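Protocol step 4 of 6: structure prediction from sequence.
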Amino acid sequence: MTTDSQDTGAHPRFAEALDTLGLTELRTRIRRFPDATRTAAEAAAAIGCELSEICKSLVFAADGVPVVVLMDGASRVDVELVRRELGAEKVTRAKADVVRETTGYAIGGVPPFGHRTRTRVLADRSLLDHAVVWAAAGTPYTVFPMAPDALIAQAGATPVDVREQSA
């Protein structure tokens, strides 16, 4: 049975994706905040977790084709490593309209799965360093917790090493 997304505050598309994927129990674990948590740092502060326990869903364009990269909140994506991983000529950050068109969500609220279109997803292995990670539930005001291996599986993501290394 599908329930109204208002019970969780999750984006309706994401709530529907949870139902479709058989993850309805996650609805009860979604946290809604009064203020937007558009950045990983804002989300970590609101949740009370480590910055690296946040799962960012970032959209890039590889030779013009959107690709989602899941990255821990304390790290940055090395676009050169993404380019090599995909065998692309050029990888750039996707513009806001491409993010919304591809995923169905606005920047700051993109969840790791439940996107509008079938998009290739890469997940940095750093996410696996945690028992639980927190990801956006379709809005800048909502997050949900999930074991990173389950999250990567639900996203259909390929585990990769695309984290920018500290100098």
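Step 5 (inspection) to follow. The chain is about 25% helix and 25% strand.
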